[in-house]
Every structure is written in C-alpha cells, then in structure tokens.
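TODO from last week: model Maleylpyruvate isomerase N-terminal domain-containing protein.
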Amino acid sequence: MGLFSRSWTALRAAVAGIPDEDFDRPSGCRGWLVRDVVCHLVIGAQDVLITLVTPAEGPATVDAVTYWHLVEPPTGEDELDALIPRLAAAYGEPRLLKFHFDDVGSAAGRAAELADPTALVGTQGQVLTVGDYLSAYVLEWTLHHLDLVARLPSAPKPPAETLAAARTLLEKIAGTPFPASMSDEGALLVGTGRRTPTDDEREALGEFAARLPLVLG
C-alpha cells in the first residue's frame, strides 16, 4: 500500500510540474505525446476508483504477479490506444488536462489509502485482494512515470524504492531475473521494449534477450 502511494504521489507531482509547452513533446511510449500519457493516466485513475468499489466473492483468482499476462507487441489497431490521442487533444489546453488528472488522481489516491488491503475486488473478470491490486499498479505507475519524463531531462524520475519494486515484479512476471549489472531503470526500460539494450546489456542478458520485450496486458 505504501509503495502504491509513493509511486502515485511521485507521478502526480511529475505531471503537475510539466510546463505547458512540454505536453506536445514525444513521450517514452511509442507513438504517444506527453499529453497522451497523462490522458491515459486519467483513465488509469478511473479504473482504480472503479475497482476499489467493486467488491467480489473469493477465492482470489490472481495476485500481483499473475494479474499481468504477457501479450504480443501492439500493432496500433487497438481501439482504446487509438482513442487516447484524440481524447488528449480534445482537452485543448494542458491546464484542463492537468486539472482533470489532479482531480481524479487525488481521489484515486485517497481511495487507495482508505481501502482494506485484505478485501477482495473484481476487475477484468478476475478476483484479487486490494493489496495485490495496488501492488500490481506500482509497476504500471512506474513505467508510465518513465514514459512521461523520457524526453524531459529536468523532470523528476520515479522514486528509487518504486523502481526497485517494479523491477522485482517484472522479474517475477518473466520468471527470470535481470542481470545485477543493469540498473532498475535500465531493466524496466529494456525489459518492456522502451529502450534497445546496449551490446554489454545484451551480452549480460544472454538467452533472456531473445524473450524481450515483455509486453504486459
């Protein structure tokens, strides 16, 4: 629960600090601008709010690791992915998008803090504890924080502890650890295809390199 709050608070602060002119810069998410990532985060915050008020009967069917599954790389044909840039552009001024994100984001943060971590909730046809659901979202928030600041060198990066937690979760999803020589940020970026591995990283990854990128669905 604490890691969720830290990752979400850091991400919201990063969005709040982005100058308006940087909203039209490319992000680290291929094909999306910074404003598109923020719009996606609005939808993510709404999903958190919806899930936390959707109680379910047990037993749990997934945990923080098995909540995620590996899928094929996106083709650009997904309707929601295509919708995001249009929604983001419809806000017009960055301040309106910032306001909506702060409004929904602060509500999602409060709901997470008030939720019982042992309670069961339902989402995407699965049942899991609130604690596992919020732990799974640490990976989501951390990756999108990296997307957000990928080309904004002065913007703050995710906290070290959430980078480490996100790496650990990604390793569990993959069933293989990343080389100790790779930083947490590097493992996340290379592991999810957000950055091409260097020659040294590819050599250290060995056979694991052939399984990358790990695309989460």
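Done. Helices lie at 2-16, 34-52, 79-90, 94-114, 130-149, 160-174, 184-191, 199-205.
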